[in-house]
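If you are new to this repository, start here. Below is one unmodified record pulled from the training split, so you can see the exact layout before writing a loader.
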Amino acid sequence: MKFAKVWKAGLLAGLLFFGAPQMPRTEAAVPAYILEIIRKGVKKAIVAIDLKIQRMQNNTIWLQNAQKVLENALNKLKLEEIAEWGERQKTLYGDYYEGLWKVKSAISQYQKVRDIAEMQGRLVGEYQKAWQHITASGQFSADELRWMEEVYLGILDHSVRNLEQVLGVVSAFNLKMNDGERLALIDRVEKKVRFNLNDLMRFNERNLLITRQRSHAKGAIKTLKEIHE
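And here is the target side for that same chain:
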């Protein structure tokens, strides 16, 4: 996998580069257009999902109202008429409950996809927050920052491909796909997006830990110098 190669190569480079002279750097590790693609894609997915959930919820309300009408009609029947209505209503209620179950199942699936899209949005926010802190700290050399850029770019590039799959899942609701197939597709995409986010979070934690350690070490050295002056 491309990202795995970038990660391994970057890890070796990092072992060589850490400890090099520090140089300030402020530009973003990941081009703005990639972040914008992810933001727009996430927004597009969430808006589409929200509209579909709203329609499904309206269908649920309609089905529930239909149930009340049928129950009221049944309550008004005389005892001798109930038996005659029995078989007809069994079929009707059977269709109702099946329809209601399908609607609720679809809503649940849409909400899962919405959660996946929100994870994608979180990934961008977590990257930006960490990179701003890393570059402002002044604790890393130019070579170290270039290596980090490669890793972050690999993660965000992978995120764009995941986003394409998220949008594909939204489209899958319009295809002739049964619940089992659709759920399997949602689960596959969810695992990829979560793995991608976890990769980013681990890399952020690693970089921020090094920032704190170096800052603390510099402070300790400064204190020792002041004591011995």
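Two things worth knowing about this chain: The chain has five helices and no strands. Confidence is low (pLDDT under 50) at residues 1-26.
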